[in-house]
Design goal:
With 68 residues, this protein is mainly α. It contains two helices and no strands.
Length: 68
């Protein structure tokens, strides 16, 4: 059976409490998995993902592809 997946990134509140709002109707049954993010471990990947798209932002590329 396929599952529909939603991803939420939230900060844990005092007392270990987590709050989020979903697009699901009242009474929906869900399963919650908690995956702890290590900010230092993911920092390199986040930087690489953000910087690797810079080559798309240039006037020559825009002119060539917009007139294709």
């Amino acid at each position: 059976m396929p599952f529909k997946t939603y991803k939420f990134e939230v900060e844990v509140l005092p007392g270990g409490k987590v709050e989020l709002t979903t697009p699901l109707p009242h009474g929906s049954r869900v399963e919650v998995l908690v995956i702890l993010q290590d900010a230092a471990e993911n920092a390199d990947l986040i930087d690489a993902a953000a910087s690797s798209t810079d080559f798309w932002d240039n006037p020559i590329d825009d002119r060539e592809w917009n007139n294709a």
